[in-house]
Amino acid sequence: MDMMDKLKILADAAKYDVACTSSGSNRAAKRGELGHNVACGICHSFTADGRCISLLKILLTNQCIYDCQYCGNRRSTDIPRAEFTPDEVAELTIRFYQRNYIEGLFLSSAIVKNPDHTMELLINALKIVREKYRFNGYIHVKTIPGADDALVRQAALLADRLSVNIELPSHESLKVLAPDKTKQNIIAPMKIIREGIAQAKNELALYRHAKNEPSFAPAGQSTQLIVGATPESDSKIVSLAEGLYGKFKLKRVFYSAYIPAGGKNLPTADPPLLREHRLYQADWLLRFYNYTASELFSNPDENLSLEMDPKCHWAVNNLHQFPVEINKADYLTLLRVPGIGQVSAQRIVAARRVGKIDFDGLKKMRVVLRRAKFFITCDGKTFDKLPLYPETIAPRLRDNSQIAGYQQLSLSWQ
Amino acid sequence: MAVNVTFDGSLEGFFCVVYAVYYEKITPSSIQEEGMDQLSFDAATRFIETDAKKATRVFNAIREKISEDAADNVHRAFHANHDGRFSALLNYIRLGFSVGHMVDSHLHENFVRLVHKLAKNVWREAHLLHGFCRFEETKQGAYYCKVTPKNDVLPMLAAHFVQRLMNQAWVIHDKVRNKAAIYDGNSCVISSVPANGVTVSLAEGEIETQELWVTFFNTLAIDERKNIKLQKQLLPLYFRGNMTEFVPIRPAPKR
């Protein structure tokens, strides 16, 4: 089998993994080594589905002993199988990196023989990339559920980011769809990575020499949840994510709308892309806007509204906290206004130091008023006289409300 | 004394204009790059010489008396493709010298917003090109990359790739402005190149690598999630003319 065929099979097998971020690691270039890392991450291309390509995302092999129903690489499917040698992976990474196609390598693998053996194969490949080819760019590696602790630690010293995919948000769903995995052996490596990172930080603070040691997973860890394959509610999923950010100090939780892979006990509908989008919006509220999962949901079976983004939804249900005075409200309160994000809030806080802000000023600062205008006052004045009731505001906050608004207008003019 | 001011078009030259505004008390009615200036009948035209010492003084003053952020904004906005950038920058710097780091809060001033907008625009394009630049290995061993940016982002690209591709020789060729950043593995210079003066012959095996990349790129898209509009939004068409995965790969060179 030549390189082209292998690449096709093993890239195709890896493409359903969402994570392709290269952020979170900042490492200067070194003489004699190839590459460096920038903290913000860099996207190198975008595929026809609008996803970013930042890393060479491939499996080492897709010959799997497991039979997870949601996965296209399970042993019971009839697909072409292939495997890379570690040297091939390394060489391909270097060739792509020298031409600026990629930011680094994202290496994962199907389970060969057993978790430990698979983890060893991955580590071996990383060693060759780092040591033989002197690659100093970004590396993201999957940890295999059930692999030995020592192997996980070893991988963390070679890679920038590690991830273990939880995939199914509950123990029951795992039992049905991924009988070879358990919650325990998914959670275990997460704990090891968390502790390793904490320890490395501590050592860095205590000993100066620690700076020269290889750093332990400097870009942290992430995971992925499949949405729509099993009956868990958004409320459960967001609460789980909140726990992962809090307890396990994860950098990212990715959500992936389930795409039918033909397994048993699974839906065959189109992927729930809007639901996935809403989950990401809620995720952002947790990470950057100081919301908690309990604020976003009233009961554990609730799903996010598909009509309105979660921040608007929260605001409409908490109208007693509005309107907010632009010239006085603190930064975190401004952040809770629908339509005002971090950039707008920062501009407002900066600009009001030197003078009062009115609606015209907001527009000039490019603060988008489409949603914000209902929830704010400028120097005591409201934008229009629209009373703050859920039934007056909610229809104007829906994602397609502009169209609805025009229709309404033309009706009233007739 | 109102005069039309011209300078050599470099950032140092522009700092010398700022210097002249303060130390020679001139009030520029317009600031233009020499050779690009329009004839005008209402005022005299004056060319300001570039002097590295003066430029450094102005640059350091901006960093120390205004802020590092302001220095970044000036540096970025200067490379924007916008006719009004020089006078906006002069106003920005003058306001900065009177209010210090608070200059970036004066968002009611049009020129402050313009400088912010231009700086952001330039930085964005440079950042995108950090990812979208495509290098090809040439017969001579150096890697060649062609760009056609809207803003003059070549200095920023060069600074990035000097770090990233430290151990290989490369050339980044700005086809619009007919200049190139040339790196030999040790130091990088930016110099002008004649239009149509560059021919590239590819190294052996280069086409094969490009084909591997294109295969990888095409394999990665998930059909069930196809979203061409989103792709266009994130990767505007004007970048694609220089990107391996969007242009047909050239036929292999004859041996």
What do you see in this structure?
The complex is a heterodimer of chains A (414) and B (255). In chain A, strand 3 (55-59), helix 2 (86-98) and strand 4 (104-108) form a beta-alpha-beta unit. Chain A has helices spanning 3-14, 86-98, 115-132, 149-158, 171-177, 183-206, 234-247, 273-288, 293-296, 310-317, 331-335, 342-351, 359-364, 369-372, 390-397, 401-413, and strands at 45-46, 52-53, 55-59, 104-108, 138-142, 161-163, 221-227, 252-257, 324-325, 376-377. A six-stranded parallel β-sheet of chain A has the order 3-4-5-6-7-8. A two-stranded antiparallel ribbon of chain A has the order 1-2. The termini of chain A are far apart. In chain A, helix 4 (149-158) packs across helix 6, helix 7 packs parallel to helix 8 (273-288) and helix 10 packs antiparallel against helix 15. With 414 residues, chain A is α/β, with parallel strands linked by helices. Chain B is of the alpha/beta class and 255 residues long. Chain B contains nine helices and eight strands. In chain B, strands 4-5-6-7-8 form a five-stranded mixed β-sheet, covered by helices on one side. In chain B, strands 2-1-3 form a three-stranded parallel β-sheet, covered by helices on one side. The longest helix of chain B is centred in the middle third of the chain and has 23 residues, at 110-132. Chain B starts with a strand and ends in a 15-residue tail after the last helix. At the A-B interface, helix 1, strand 1, strand 2, helix 2 and helix 12 of A face helix 5, strand 4, helix 6, helix 7 and helix 8 of B.
